Amino acid sequence: MIRTLAFLLLLAPAALAQGPAHDWRTIELPHFRVYYPVEYEAWAMRAAERLEPIRTEVIEEIGYAPPQIIDVIVMNPIAEPNGSAWPLLESPRMIFFTEPPGPDEQLGAYGHWIDLLSVHETAHLVHMLRPARNRWERLLPFAPIMFSSPRWVLEGYATVIEGRLTGAGRPSSTIRALILRRWAENGRLPTYSQLDSDQRFLGMSMAYLMGSAYLEWLERRAGEGSLQKLWARLTARQRRSFDEAFIGVFGESPERLYGRFTAELTVSAMTLKRSPVREGALFQETPRASGDPAVSPDGTRLAVVVRGRDEPEKLVIWSTGPATEEEKKDQERIAKMLERDPEDVGPLRTKPLPRKAVHELALPDGGDISTPRWTRDGKALLFAHRVPDAEGVLHFDLYRWDFQHLTRLTRLADVRDADPLDERSAIAVRSRFGASQLVSVDLTTGAVTPRGEASIDHVISHPRVSPDGRRIAHVAHRGGRWTLLVDDTPVELPGDPASPEWLSNDELLVTVFSRGFAELHRVRLDGTSTPVTRTSGGAFQPAPTRDGRAFFMSLEPDGYVVRELEELAEAPAPPPYDETLVPAMPPVERRTGFSPSTPGGGGLKPALRYGIGRQELTWLASQSWAADQRSLEIGARLGDVLGRLDTLLLASFATDNMPQGFALMSAWRGWPVELHGHAYHAEDETGGELRARWTRRFPLARLTLEAGASDDLAFATGMFSTRQQLGSTRFEETLRLDVDDEHYRAIVGAGVRAGSLRLAARYQRDGGANVILGGVASSILPRSAYALRILDPALPVAIAGGDEYDGWRIETTLPGVPLTAFYQRHELGDTRVSLAGAEATLAFEPFPILKLPALDFSAGVARVLGAPEALELRGETKWWLTMRWRP
How far is Cα 109 from Cα 104, in angstroms, rounded to an integer? Predict the structure, then answer.
């Protein structure tokens, strides 16, 4: 349960990225409400047409019909394919990201992206909304299946359903078969305890891949309908753990049967591995999802994007020649070792030495780099990188790197995968609002010109210009499958193509996915296809050279590696299909409940303007206790699913120096400038506050301006924060200035982060009016009520006061420890207090998907190291836990 809640909260920022100030619309269906920004109307209408028939098929497969109406939110905040389901019993939600997957991604096997996404997320909700028959469990906001089932069951079952109902998806894909087979033959399949959360390469994907394969194996073993029996036992009146429910259906524990499943999978994988291979030589090991190789026009340099786990992505250029310098240094190192100890034995080397980069680039924001391509003269590289707009929504833009200077070519153009036509222009893919199209990009002005109509039904990928500049090859998803096109003419292949690269003006090198294998094929324009690889780890993203060689990426359990093929001769044929080797080979046929490419018909009601949205009620409670302060707060949130209008009513029951009373506060986010109002009555005081906030994000910075007034105070606030990435080290700076009628507060902060290690310092200066030190904040008082307070949960309220304040804080976060260690010093007049401790803090922005307002949380302990004797604090240890709600 705790893991599930933590996972939900981590996803909160992504769910808020498309702001409520947009022009949102609503489509109402019998069992769904679809919300979307008006620019996404074509995509949202297509989804709305399919949701009701998809729900019918999912219900028939799972065996339960939830009565709730499901809210569906359409957006594209990170320019990546994704989705999520939130099984709140009273108001379930789904979020659809419109970005379609490419052909070589895990989600790349689909009839239509909207169908695959809708089936998977609807299956989640229909599965997890099944109510408990135990009356006590019915009181929970989530159904027991969500809390009692491991993650591999929840994700695996939705993946099973996606395959059965669409006839596509991961269960029938080459990618799933290849990954499971490659891990099995290397003895690297996840253990049962690793299925839910494995931090190794692709480990988090195993809940989908291994989870779905294991559930299919279980159902074949126990018979059709056995999974539905498992869900019935999990929601029974008699409370059971997942293992107890599982044993009652399958006869053994899930861990024990998983061991048998992995044994059978390994046998299948090793059977296929015994067939002949032709996979070239290992050129260089690279970590995790590294890839996108590109060979320079003269064939002497290879560009690769290196994607490590804890470091920013790097664009690295290596020489394609022998690693002479690296070999020499390695031999010198071994010679010195043997000279010191002649009886020692030199190391056996089975892999290439790490190559020294000729050039290397990491972006200042530490962000992603994708699809690098050499200019025709070989003097620079074009690549795509995601950049945030003013609201933080990410867009792909093109950059040029000449190894000395980095130039941004486009501005929020949503273009990527560019290939130069000449020195002034390039062909690229634009993916915007869920629609895809080929475009031309002017490399001098950044202007983007469409080369065809944008379509939500046709997905474009990997355009490449022939050596003579006369032809353009690309891969397109049409009619439920991927097709290679040359100048819009289809080229038939024995499988699904990806990543075409020109070998000559009339021949291409293409990755072809077919029956569990991903191999390179030489393809002539007349459709003649010759396989040139037969690999265990697949052959992806080819990068051919003019002298007849080819580099490509191949899959290993620790990540993709770069391989080199010396000649493009015909490879051995793959083994014949053997249905007994499933899931090491994908099944040939799947059950299909509906046509994945045919919409469910019209008849939709006209879309409505969103307005203030449908207001929903949520009960809230929190508790705070700190040095000499205690409070209990209860109340309710009334708000909509987008967070356009949030209203909180809270009452505080307090003792020991905390205000007691109630407050009504509201936030309106329907305009670019947010408006906040706060009215309260505490003890014998009644008051209010009005505040306006404007925020703008930049690629490396963020600016927030606020202004407002309370009963006796006018105030303004400005906060500017920046960040830069230098290698694996990230630097962060913050400047904040608060001013009101008689008082000012200046805060300067700086931090450095390397991996999970963070060190930061902050200085605060207050002046112009009497301020007091100590205490924590209450939810029922507005922020302006604390304008003259220096809050510190380790110190009692108002232990000192004065006109001038100086404060220092130094803190660090250590790897593997969920606490921040700190040293803090307060100087207020003649009073000096210093303390050290550790705390855990969380600051969540509003999360309307889960009907939650903003929350500030802190829990920690500190020891007072120094204080005036009159305060009687020195040597004391203070504990605290504080929660503060915000609309």
Answer: 9
Residue 812 has pLDDT above 60, yes or no: yes
- What pLDDT does 602 receive? 58
DSSP 192: G
Residues 721 and 751: beta-carbon distance below 8 Å = no
- Does residue 285 sit within a domain? yes
Confidence of residue 590 (pLDDT cuts 50, 70, 90): low
3-state secondary structure of 256: helix
C-alpha span between 835 and 866 (Å, rounded): 7
Give the DSSP letter string of 646-666: EEEEEEEEEESS---EEEEEE
Are 538 and 672 in the same domain? Answer: no
Q: Return the exposure string of 787-804: e unless at least 16 CB atoms fall within 10 Å of the residue's CB, then b.
A: bbbbebbbbbbebbbbee
Q: Is residue 602 included in any domain, yes or no?
A: no
Backbone torsions φ then ψ of 543, nearest 5 degrees: -135, 85
3 state DSSP class of 67: coil
Q: What percent of the chain has pLDDT over 70?
A: 96
Residue 599 CB coordination number (10 Å): 17
* Contact criterion met (CB below 8 Å) for 809 and 840: no
Picking from 422, 414, 418, the residue whose alpha carbon sits closest to that of residue 373 is 418
pLDDT at residue 345 is higher than 60: yes
Per-residue pLDDT, 795? 93
Looking at the fold, whether 469 and 443 belong to one and the same domain comes out as yes
* Radius of gyration of the chain measured on its C-alpha atoms: 30
Q: How many CB atoms sit inside 10 A of residue 755's CB?
A: 12
Of 139-143, 562-566, 673-677, give the lowest mean pLDDT range: 139-143
Does residue 527 sit in the same domain as residue 559? Answer: yes
Q: Taking the mean position of all CA atoms in its chain, how far away is CA 784?
A: 36
Please tell me the predicted confidence (pLDDT) of residue 3.
Answer: 37
CATH of residue 624: 2.40.160
Can you give the residue range of the structural domain that contains 390? 281-338+352-571
Mean pLDDT value across residues 143-159: 91
What pLDDT is attached to residue 657?
82
Q: What is the pLDDT of residue 5?
A: 39
Residue 271 and residue 285 share a domain: no
Q: Is the pLDDT of residue 744 over 80?
A: yes
Residue 597 pLDDT > 70, yes or no? no
713: phi then psi, degrees, rounded to nearest 5: -150, 130
pLDDT at 638: 97
Which residue type does 598 have? Answer: T
User: Is 226 part of any domain?
Assistant: yes
Same domain, 34 and 108: yes
**Least reliable range by pLDDT among 72-86, 90-104, 498-512, 802-816:** 802-816
Which CATH number fits the domain that encloses residue 392? 2.120.10.30
Given a cut of 60, whether residue 9 has pLDDT beyond it is: no
Total number of domains constituting the chain: 4
Q: What is the DSSP string of 413-476?
A: --EEEEEESSSSEEEEEEEETTEEEEEEEETTT--EEESS--BSS-EEEEEEE-TTSS-EEEEE
pLDDT digits (tens, 9 = 90+) for 601-655: 457 889 999 999 999 999 999 999 998 889 999 999 999 999 999 999 999 998 7
Q: Do residues 552 and 484 both lie within one domain?
A: yes
Can you give the CATH number for the domain in which 19 is found?
3.30.2010.30
Burial class (CB in 10 A: 0-12, 13-18, 19+), 816: exposed
Domain boundary among 276, 299, 323: 276
Evaluate whether 372 touches 383 at the Cβ level (below 8 Å).
yes
Is 414 found in the same domain as 385? Answer: yes
Q: Are residues 424 and 518 in the same domain?
A: yes
> Domain boundary at 226, 258, 276, which?
276
Q: Is 599 inside a domain boundary?
A: no
With a CB cutoff of 8 Å and minimum separation 6, the contacts of 667 are 645, 646, 647, 674, 675, 676, 677, 846, 887
